[in-house]
Records
---
Amino acid sequence: MNAAVRAVAQAAFGKGWEVAAVESGYAGLLEGRFRSVDSGALSGWMSRGGTMLGTERSDDFATDEGKSRAVEAAREAGVEGLVVVGGGGSLAGALALDERGLPVAGIPATIDNDVAGTDMSIGVDTALNTAVGIIDRIRDTASSHHRAHVVEVFGRDNGYLAVMSALAGGADAVLTPEFETKPEDIVRLLEESYEGGKPHFVVVVSEGASPTADELCGHINDAGESYAADLTAAGHIQSGGGPTAFDRILAGRLGAAAVKALADGDAGKMMGLQGNVIERVPLEEIVGEDRPLDPGLYELAGELARIPR
Ligand SMILES: Nc1ncnc2c1ncn2[C@@H]1O[C@H](COP(=O)(O)OP(=O)(O)OP(=O)(O)O)[C@@H](O)[C@H]1O
Ligand SMILES: O=P(O)(O)OC[C@H]1O[C@](O)(CO)[C@@H](O)[C@@H]1O
């Protein structure tokens, strides 16, 4: 997020524009909380995790009156164009503002990687690397203790983070909200693995999967035939931390592209990474849409799980 704000500001300075940052998302926009930015103020932003501008969900902004008030607040502050950095909800808000006459460019940022129109959102690669680091450490512990470990990663509605971290972490199984898994099947795999002499068994479970990580842990322990199971919820560790080089570069590309789109008078678009190209995708095409999990990746995670046979 910070790397994206820095990129937008730097690209805007390059055009001779004045830059103001909005604090606390749409809540701050409604209250006219603008912070004037010069290039000195951006020192160190590239490597910082989280968002230095703050973020807040706003119920007020969700109303029609709230959105019109937000446009008014921007106009009163002399804002001629706005760049919104965020997930599906934030980009829906961006479209609403653009439709009310405030030129907006969107940048997709969410660790869920569920925004349509882009292969990757900002934050995904950083969260993924964090999740993989957790799985690696858990596997060390699991091997030492001959245990099963269930690792819960974020993703209420989308299994991207779970599948990709299972693939990169070499997990033995993965559960996501998109695909049904019978706990008995996991217990069977686990027992095969135990009998095959494997020192550990690691299952990655999306927050929104059914059974949940907690339920699966209970099933394994109730079966009581092989490994004992422990649960680790990665939680908000996944949404913090300095961004990876990939995320910093993506933020730079998307930020510069957003400013260019506004400069070209081509507002109402989200900047999306498609292949290795940054495309301008109409916000109305992606709002309300989801980027579905690729079932091929889910199948691959299962295929590469190293269950002894
Ligand atoms: N359908 C919508 N139309 C307009 N504004 C919206 C809509 N949904 C959410 N918002 C606004 O966007 C802001 C952020 O939304 P939300 O909390 O859903 O996060 P997000 O951008 O989708 O990111 P995350 O991936 O973290 O969920 C909120 O302040 C909310 O008021
Ligand atoms: O605790 P909160 O605010 O609901 O945030 C966690 C949620 O945010 C996300 O990280 C992004 O939408 C989800 O994967 C997760 O469910």
Note: Residues 110 and 173 are 24 Å apart (CA to CA).
---
Amino acid sequence: MLQALKQSKDFLQFTLAQPQHFDEVGTFMLGSHTQVEVWDTGVIVFEPVESELKQTSGKDIVLSCAVHGNETAPIELCNGLVKALLEETLIAKQRILFLFGNPPAIINGTRFIDENLNRLFNGAHSVGEGLINPERIRAKKLEFYVDKFFTSENAATHKIHYDLHTAIRGSKHEKFAIYPYRPGRQYSGEQIMFLEACGIDTVLFHHEPTTTFSYFSSLNYQADAFTIELGKVLPMGQNDMTRFIALNEMLTRLISDTPLQLSEFNAKSVNLYQVCRAINKNFDDFEFTFANDVENFTAFPNGYILAKEGGNDIKVEHEIEAVVFPNAKVPIGQRTVLCLKPASTDNIDKAHNS
Ligand SMILES: O=C(O)CCC(=O)N[C@@H](CCC(=O)O)C(=O)O
Ligand SMILES: [Zn+2]
């Protein structure tokens, strides 16, 4: 079965041929330099052989895509990197795990099938009704694979996880990253400048624990983990991949341990936002007052009525709040929108450490 992958070098096609699960896990070598391991459908690891690994600066990298099945640009990007690795035009000098999160939802062309996978991490998959649907089962497996990768005897100390997405609506900042809640740990100015070099010039600092994939890696493995939004959702094949040239170049450098040549941290070259609150849905009649085509990062003044539910008005509480990811069509109890204010740079480690 792995023969098909070795021939086509198309991991997406290989994954979608067995979207539910994969019986024949396996390992093969690329030349004498890299071991490839397929752990499950959509799960592939590239590991430089030990002699190569010792010469590196030691980063373990997780790149995930398709946690939401219809977010296709990250899938095309990751598939391109896997292809370059399989074709040996890109040689891994760091251990790297690629995860294609929800293959059945990719086939379906939808965000999810039964339940939003990116609300099921940090054990949420097993809470309440438990492992009742394929997304809950997959979330548990994805946690297991990340754990296996980050706790391997070959694991590096510097752990990185970029969970790649695209957003439902347009945005005043086309590409942006969500920095998960990080109590007691400074934000990494070096990572922010890496993102900036990738063309991701906007970062949101999350204010509370969540059940997202990036928070799972950040919390449990102290990874430099981010949810990264790369533009607007488009059908497979319709993405303008020229918009990801910088990101592809920087990921290629990261994987091949080529100098990243990052600029010193400079707050003026990025837009930094602090999440001040998440507004959750409490009633079925929850609705926003603004139009459906309002872009992410649109700002509203103090007192403005953002939404209504159960006979109550939900108003802007700060001088100004910008909104991101407004979505009224979520189940009761889930986040309908994040509200943002400008962030302070006090808690950012401005040194470059690697
Ligand atoms: O565009 C939208 O409304 C959602 C885009 C998306 O999938 N965003 C992630 C963000 C996760 C995080 O907060 O780290 C999500 O909602 O899962
Ligand atoms: Zn998404």
Note: The CA atoms of residues 80 and 208 lie 34 Å apart.
